[in-house]
């Protein structure tokens, strides 16, 4: 080997050795990488009971200082979520307190202009059932709309919001009679807010109370706004309820309902009386007699008083017919006797009803 070849071979050897030293040794264990753990702080869940106790204070504040319509919607949403997280007594307290809140709310925003506006809306909605011609009803509606638009300019933005959101606010237009309307808290409020979290007796009460509501007084223009038949059904329901749920939280309200329905059923009102005195052969309203008979045969707590009233009517009907057999009597004199007779019979029936009321507790 000559000197030149030796030098070339030596250089190649050195280069190969250098490359092998530069390559990492794949057989060595890789050094693990150090990672820094990130600790995420999870917020503690809010205790619903504590959160809802603050709602109680808010309710008191709104009742004292007032609440806007939008605030009322928000408050009702929060209240509905909280009812399940407070004790039963607190639920009853809220049920009473929200009733006072609504009374204050309605009193704050109600005005002559608002009632007038409501009346105009109701008048327009009733036109389709009127007997006038289509053209006449159209004319009447246009006149009413024109007047309503004038009234609308006198309403505040809160009042306009209320009219546009009656259902969300659990409000309803209530007919007082003689063409007058007002706003009232709809019984659906208590049913929606509280029913699911109350004892069975309370659930039955609130649901039935809501279903009986129809947006008007019983006494409309001195006449009953529901039939004698419906009065009998309601009376029998609440008497059965009183027996089944004798310790109900709403016992006092049930007693008042029983007395009210029984009074209207047995006596009627001035323009829809049980004792009519309109016909020579009939003293009492036939539909009232049927309804009272239903109660007398129902084995309810009002059955005895219903039977007493029927017996009295039967007895007095005979005397009524005898009154009209008298000859040679002037119409004026007969009319006076009829009027006096009806008053006497009504007084006897009132005495029976008062006696029944005294024993209903």
Question: Would you summarize the structure shown here?
Answer:
The chain has 361 residues and is mainly alpha-helical.
Describe the protein.
This protein has 361 residues and is mostly helical. 64% of the residues lie in helices and 6% in strands. It is built from 14 helices and six strands. It has helices at 3-22, 48-65, 69-82, 88-109, 112-126, 134-152, 157-164, 188-194, 200-212, 228-244, 251-267, 286-296, 303-323, 331-358; strands spanning 171-177, 180-185, 219-220, 223-224, 268-269, 272-273. Strands 1-2 form a two-stranded antiparallel sheet. A two-stranded antiparallel ribbon has the order 3-4. A hairpin with a 2-residue loop joins β1 (171-177) and β2. The longest helix is centred in the last third of the chain and has 28 residues, at 331-358. It is flat. Mean pLDDT is 88; it is low at 2-12 and 17-32.
Basic shape = flat
Rounded to the nearest angstrom, the radius of gyration is 40 Å
Any low-confidence stretches, pLDDT <50, length ≥5?
Answer: 2-12, 17-32
Amino- and carboxy-terminal Cα gap: 135 Å
Helix content: 55-70%
What is the element string, with H for helices and E for strands? HHHHHHHEEHHEEHHEEHHH
Question: What is the strand and helix layout of this fold?
Answer:
Blueprint: H1 3-22, H2 48-65, H3 69-82, H4 88-109, H5 112-126, H6 134-152, H7 157-164, E1 171-177, E2 180-185, H8 188-194, H9 200-212, E3 219-220, E4 223-224, H10 228-244, H11 251-267, E5 268-269, E6 272-273, H12 286-296, H13 303-323, H14 331-358
Antiparallel strand pairs: 1-2, 3-4, 5-6
């Amino acid at each position: 080997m000559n000197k030149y070849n030796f030098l070339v071979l030596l250089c190649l050897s050195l280069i190969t050795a250098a490359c092998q030293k530069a390559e990492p040794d794949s057989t060595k264990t890789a050094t693990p990488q150090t990672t820094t753990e990130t600790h995420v702080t999870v917020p503690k869940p809010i205790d619903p009971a504590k959160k809802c106790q603050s709602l109680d204070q808010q309710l008191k504040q709104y009742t004292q200082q007032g609440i806007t319509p939008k605030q009322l919607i928000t408050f009702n949403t929060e209240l509905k979520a909280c009812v399940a997280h407070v004790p039963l007594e607190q639920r009853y307290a809220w049920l009473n307190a929200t009733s006072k809140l609504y009374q204050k709310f309605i009193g704050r925003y109600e005005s002559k202009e608002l009632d007038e506006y409501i009346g105009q809306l109701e008048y327009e909605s009733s036109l389709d059932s009127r007997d006038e011609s289509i053209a006449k009803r159209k004319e009447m509606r246009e006149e009413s709309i024109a007047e309503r638009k004038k009234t609308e300019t006198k309403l505040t933005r809160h009042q306009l919001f209320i009219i546009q959101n009656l259902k969300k606010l659990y409000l309803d237009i209530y007919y007082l009679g003689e063409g007058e309307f007002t706003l009232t808290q709809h019984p659906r409020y208590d049913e929606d807010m509280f029913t699911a979290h109350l004892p069975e007796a309370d659930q039955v009460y609130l649901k039935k109370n809501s279903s009986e509501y129809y947006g008007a007084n019983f006494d409309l223009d001195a006449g009953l706004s529901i039939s004698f038949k419906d009065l009998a059904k309601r009376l029998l329901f609440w008497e059965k309820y009183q027996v089944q749920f004798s310790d109900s939280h709403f016992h006092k309200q049930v007693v008042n309902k029983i007395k009210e329905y029984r009074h209207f059923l047995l006596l009627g009102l001035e323009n829809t009386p049980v004792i009519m005195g309109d016909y020579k052969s009939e003293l009492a309203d036939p539909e009232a007699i049927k309804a009272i008979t239903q109660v007398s045969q129902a084995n309810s707590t009002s059955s005895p008083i219903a039977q007493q009233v029927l017996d009295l009517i039967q007895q007095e009907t005979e005397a009524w017919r005898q009154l009209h057999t008298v000859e040679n009597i002037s119409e004026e004199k007969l009319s006076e006797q009829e009027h006096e007779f009806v008053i006497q019979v009504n007084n006897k029936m009132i005495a029976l009803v008062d006696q029944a009321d005294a024993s209903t507790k």
